[in-house]
TrEMBL record:
The protein's enzyme class: oxidoreductase
Organism lineage string: Bacteria, Bacillati, Actinomycetota, Actinomycetes, Kitasatosporales
Family of the protein in this entry: Belongs to the short-chain dehydrogenases/reductases (SDR) family.
PROSITE patterns registered for this protein in UniProt: ADH_SHORT
InterPro entries in the record: KR_dom (IPR057326), NAD(P)-bd_dom_sf (IPR036291), Sc_DH/Rdtase_CS (IPR020904), SDR_fam (IPR002347)
GO molecular function: 3-oxoacyl-[acyl-carrier-protein] reductase (NADPH) activity
Keyword Membrane: no
Coiled coil residues, start to end: none
Domain (Ketoreductase): residue spans on this chain: 7-190
EC number: 1.1.1.100
Protein name: 3-oxoacyl-ACP reductase FabG
Keywords on record: Oxidoreductase
Xref: SMART domains: PKS_KR (SM00822)
Pfam families: adh_short_C2
Length: 246
């Protein structure tokens, strides 16, 4: 039997990259999905590619706006009748050294990652605690574990997602709702492949498995945390890094 048969999942940042890979994996395992993304056109194209309205819906969503997250969650309930999995994946980068980073760049990254993940977690939890079941998967980053040069904003935000996830896991455990986090390392994407070769080579040298990860490899871990395979896990942080910074 499919791991997510008869389940409905909401995935933020679902139009591309890791978010889309998670959506694809979930659909393969029987789930219906709702993709939230700032780029509605891209989200609609992704939903169509996943199988159209019977399987996937697209919603324009700014996760820093609680009302828009409400709409995202309500779309899942209206379209598919439940909300069983919430994946808070949407994120941005505004990299700069602390000396050059603007206050706006700091605020933008903190707002999207911390407030956005908080909005997604609390809005999903409000539904899940009533049905006494559900899995929330928050996407952090290896940058939240070790800190990266030029990412005081991003590293702080991704570390914050870990703390948020653990606190939420404690609040929701007795309601039958699990909250876990994933910390991906260097994952092959349009963004990472655009980095200078010198930066790519430096990161590769830190990875014992000697390769970058693929979005699908993060998606498989998200599937594990979303499904009953991880039924006795909450408040955990799983690294998908090829062994980098063990």
């Amino acid at each position: 039997m499919a791991l997510l048969a008869d389940k409905t999942a909401v995935i933020t940042g679902g139009a591309q990259g890791i978010g889309l890979a998670i959506a694809e994996r979930f659909v393969q395992e029987g789930a219906k999905v709702v993709l939230g993304d700032l780029n509605l056109e891209a989200a609609e194209a992704a939903a169509k590619g996943l199988g159209g309205p019977a399987v996937a819906r697209a919603v324009r969503c700014d996760i820093t706006n609680a009302g828009e997250v409400d709409t995202l969650v309500q779309t899942a309930l209206d379209a598919f009748g439940s909300l069983d999995v919430m994946v808070n994946n949407a994120g941005i980068t505004r990299d700069a050294t602390m000396r050059k980073m603007t206050e706006e760049q700091f605020d933008q990254v903190i707002d999207v990652h911390i407030k956005g993940t908080w909005n997604g977690t609390r809005k999903a939890a409000a539904v899940m605690r009533e049905q006494k079941s559900g899995a929330i998967v928050n996407i952090s980053s290896l940058s939240g574990k070790v800190g990266m040069v030029g990412q005081t904003n991003y590293s702080a935000a991704k570390a914050g997602i870990v703390g948020l996830s653990k606190a939420a896991a404690k609040e929701l455990a007795h309601h039958g709702v699990r909250v876990n986090a994933i910390q991906p390392g260097l994952i092959r994407s349009a963004m990472t492949e655009a980095m200078p070769q010198k930066a790519w080579d430096q990161k590769m040298a830190e990875i014992p498995m000697q390769r970058a990860g693929e979005p699908g490899e993060v998606a498989s871990v998200a599937l594990f945390l979303a499904s009953e395979l991880s039924s006795y896990m909450t408040g955990t942080v799983l690294e998908v890094t090829g062994g980098r910074f063990m």
